[in-house]
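Quick question, first post here. What does this chain look like in 3D?
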Amino acid sequence: MAWKEVQIGDIRWTVSPVVERVAHTHAWRLVLNCRSRGESVRTVWATTSLQSPSRSDLYAQADRLTEARLTAVVAEHVGSD
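> Answer (accepted):
Ran it through. Tokens below.
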């Protein structure tokens, strides 16, 4: 199940938050798994600038992302297809 959904152009994207370890540090980074819905299914990993030493803190920060900010991050990575 998707965490959130955003509309980019005429394509609907389901978005799920994931955290990954930042190389050579003790920090974690928030990454968004974005999957298009419809005829041309596509998966894109959208990195964000959000980092923290705590994975749970990153998930809390993800929950506080506004719809506009989330849409902007996804749009930056998927283009305006």
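The two ends are 23 Å apart (CA to CA).
The longest strand covers residues 11-21.
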